[in-house]
Design brief:
The chain is α+β, with helices and mostly antiparallel strands. Helix 11 links the parallel strand 17 and strand 18. It is flat and about 70 Å long.
């Protein structure tokens, strides 16, 4: 059974147990769990600078040289530290049984560890009276991060992104304080920002002429909005109003494209599609029916973009979906929706 990434799991390992709780969500975004079959390579010395690896389950052989080999299982005291620290020279770690490995982006982890040192230094000086408490108000009052990051990491958006992209999103997001009654998004306005609710609640009023017929939805901590208008470069289809005071994290359209869209909307050429096994993919055309009739293709299934969500339950996880037509923003939005739903999808280039 595959373990899930959790605080309890992370706190078993050093120096991860020294990361403050308010940064735990960021740390979790840097992590991934990898299964390695018996006989497989877990870690090579030359690759250890990219990831820090920890043994969650199984037994490994740490081969430092032909004559020097150490066998360890997940309960060994040495495994509370990273496997990287056990290697020397041109060493290698090999799985002696089926193993689960916690891998952490080394660059991001080093940044978090340096933040921890910096915070400790500042607090020591606070005790000496060199800074006022007001200087630390924001840092002290940021326990809400524990909640929003964990909720966001379980969202369809985060599960479709890799650890590096999520870490970059967390680093670049800008915090703004908001009040109850603030209108964050006005329906039919131009898309400018992507938002995550860090603290508070918001109410979404959908377009009365849209497929959901003006329904209202409440969003809490860790939920996000404003993404689809940025993907498709279309006017907002809903208004969003804060129902409580709170804090929002936001990315402008340029950063959203660089951090989120680039990670979820991958292009594919017609030549690449032609080289694929026809039994392994399905072409989807997201134009409206009247448009599709004029260029009807036997290779493509027409599902207008406005109805794509309602058809997601009929898609197959085993297939790859190619979304067209070429050069249409709706194709990018269709790809984005499919990726969020857990399907392997590409936008026809």
């Amino acid at each position: 059974m595959t373990k899930s990434i959790s605080r309890v799991l992370i706190k078993k390992f050093s120096p991860l147990d020294s990361i403050p709780d308010q940064h735990m969500g960021t740390l979790m975004a840097l992590c991934q769990i990898e299964s390695v079959p018996a006989g497989g390579i877990v870690l090579k010395q030359k690759e250890s600078r990219l990831y820090r690896s920890y043994l969650i389950r199984g037994k490994v052989e740490v081969r430092r040289s032909f004559h020097e080999r150490v066998y360890l299982d997940q309960d060994a005291s040495e495994c509370s530290k990273s496997l990287n620290e056990l290697l020397t020279g041109a060493g290698v770690v090999r799985a002696k049984s089926n193993c689960q490995i916690l891998k952490i982006d080394n660059r991001g982890l080093e940044e978090l560890l340096s933040w921890n040192v910096s915070t400790s230094y500042q607090i020591a000086h606070l005790e000496e009276g060199e800074f006022s408490l007001g200087y630390f108000d924001k840092a002290i009052d940021d326990e809400y991060e524990n909640d929003w990051t964990e909720v966001f990491l379980q969202s369809p958006l985060a599960t479709g992104m890799n650890a590096k992209a999520i870490s970059e999103l967390f680093r670049k997001i800008e915090d703004i304080e908001v009040k109850a009654g603030d209108r964050i998004i006005e329906q039919h306005s131009t898309g400018d920002y992507f938002y995550i609710i860090k603290q508070g609640e918001a109410r979404v009023a959908l377009d009365v002429y849209g497929p959901l017929r003006g329904q209202c939805v409440s969003l809490g901590v860790g939920r996000y909005f404003g993404d689809e208008a940025l993907i498709a470069d279309v006017p907002r289809n809903a208004s969003v109003t804060m129902t409580t005071d709170g804090v929002l994290g936001r990315l402008d359209s340029e950063l959203f494209s660089a951090v989120v869209k680039r990670n979820l909307v991958s292009p594919i050429s017609a030549k690449q599609v032609a080289e694929m096994d026809v039994n392994n993919y399905q072409c989807i055309d997201v134009r409206f029916s009247v448009e599709f009739r004029d260029v009807c293709s036997k290779m493509a299934r027409n599902i207008p973009i406005t109805h794509l969500r309602q058809h997601l339950e009929n898609f197959e996880l085993q297939k790859t979906y190619i979304v067209g037509p070429t050069g249409d923003k709706r194709s990018e939005l269709g790809t984005y929706l499919l990726r969020q739903a857990g399907f392997n999808a590409f936008c026809l280039q």
